[in-house]
Design brief:
With 388 residues, the protein is mainly beta. It has helices spanning 5-12, 18-23, 26-34, 104-109, 168-172, 286-291, and strands at 38-50, 73-85, 94-102, 123-134, 140-148, 176-187, 190-197, 218-226, 238-247, 257-268, 274-285, 297-308, 313-323, 336-346, 352-364, 376-387. A 16-stranded antiparallel barrel has the order 1-2-3-4-5-6-7-8-9-10-11-12-13-14-15-16. The longest helix has 9 residues, at 26-34.
Length: 388
């Protein structure tokens, strides 16, 4: 390494030492820092047919990452790229996770900073956090930055879900949070987490924009119980409960506070490969209740079933009932209704997930869907994901 005269002069005065500078070679530093980093991700594409509905006409069922933009055609959903340095087993372990999205779903994710103008760019930060461990008790694992909400049955990443299309429950839940979360393992079967975030919204670095106190934040906590291996066929079953309360720019009025309660779990059965699940989501908009006298409430009840019939073939079913009457929200969230989703997954190629799906949404009492405003919406979709 070459040094300029200024650096040599500092070394002569004893302010710096040349050996220390040699050790700080940028290339070597990068190699050392990246030694334990892993690269992973996936490419998610699909084809969708909305039966009896012409593209772009009328309203579409209210589930995340759906809508008119994907009706009746082929779609690139998202390209996911993640860099990870996971925590090791040492008491003071440190690591990080960076996950980026590219494609139309990146715009729907809505993590883009509000001061960025809100323009569609087809890319977004899905997650980005520093992971740390403090050796208190069994050890507390921390995430500082942008991370997934601990609430919910389904994941933001579609390949991790039993179905291709998202549920009503996922759609009304908080997804990404910017803040701090700590997770503590009480024992092999019980884990708790708690944290604080700027808001309950996914937008990175979002703040309370309505002049509220500077300490206005969102607070959350959750607990997960898991059945140990010694419980026979019940082993692997789990139950989770969680709650979040805080400011949201989507909330009504200057208070803007929204509360969300979640409870859900998965139960293994004596039938080989068969699991069933259930989820409850309750969302309350405090501003609507205080200002307009409307309830501000949305209730969603969901049931799930998954059956791994062979090594390559699995079958999945979901049924939901949602009640958003008098919630004060705009259509189509102002009604109650049902959805049933049936999915067949067959993993023919290595590292490739292939799914065929049928979805039926129906509203109770109001005609909402499509250009002719009928009560029923029918969707047939195919989904292919390459995971690396």
């Amino acid at each position: 390494m070459k040094f300029n005269k200024w650096t040599v002069g500092l070394a002569a005065a004893g302010i710096v030492t040349l050996p220390s500078l040699v050790k700080a070679d940028p290339v070597e530093m990068v190699k050392t820092a990246a030694a334990d980093t892993t690269l992973s991700g996936y490419v998610d594409v699909s084809a969708q047919w909305n039966i009896g509905v012409q593209h772009g006409q009328g309203l579409y069922p209210p589930y995340a990452f759906g809508g008119a933009g994907k009706a009746d055609g082929f779609n690139l959903n998202v390209v996911d790229i993640a860099l990870d340095k996971p925590l090791d087993e040492t008491p003071w372990a440190a690591g990080y996770h960076v996950e980026l999205w590219f494609g139309p779903d990146a715009n729907t994710l809505s993590t883009g900073a509000s001061y960025g103008g809100g323009h569609a760019t087809d890319w977004a930060i899905r997650q980005a956090y520093v992971a740390l461990r403090t050796p208190l008790g069994n050890g507390i694992d921390w995430k500082i930055g942008v991370f997934d909400s601990p609430l919910g049955y389904e994941s933001t990443s579609s390949p991790n879900n039993p179905n291709f299309t998202r549920s009503y429950g996922y759609t009304i839940e908080p997804t990404e949070l910017t803040g701090l979360i700590g997770t503590y393992k009480i024992c092999d079967g019980a884990t708790v987490s708690a944290g604080v975030a700027n808001t309950i919204d996914p937008t990175i670095n979002e703040r309370n924009q309505f002049g509220a106190k500077e300490d206005t934040k969102a607070y959350f906590g959750s607990m997960t119980l898991s059945a140990p291996d010694s419980w026979g066929w019940v082993a692997g079953s789990s139950l989770s409960v969680g709650y979040i309360h805080g400011f949201s720019v989507t909330g009504a009025g200057n208070s803007g506070n929204i509360s969300h309660l979640y409870a859900g779990g998965t139960l293994a059965t004596p039938v080989t490969g068969l699991k069933v699940g259930a989820a409850l989501d309750y969302r309350h908009d405090h501003g609507l209740h205080n200002i307009s006298g409307q309830s501000g409430d949305i209730w969603v009840y969901g049931l799930y079933a998954s059956w791994q019939t062979t090594e390559k073939l699995s079958l999945h079913a979901r049924g939901e009932y949602g009640d958003a009457r008098d919630s004060g929200l705009v259509a189509p969230f102002t009604v109650k209704g049902w959805e049933v989703t049936l999915t067949a997954q067959y993993d023919l190629w290595k590292n490739v997930l292939t799914r065929a799906e049928f979805r039926w949404d129906t509203s109770d009492g109001r005609n909402l869907w499509g250009p002719t405003l009928t009560k029923n919406s029918f969707i047939v979709a195919g989904n292919v994901v390459y995971k690396f």
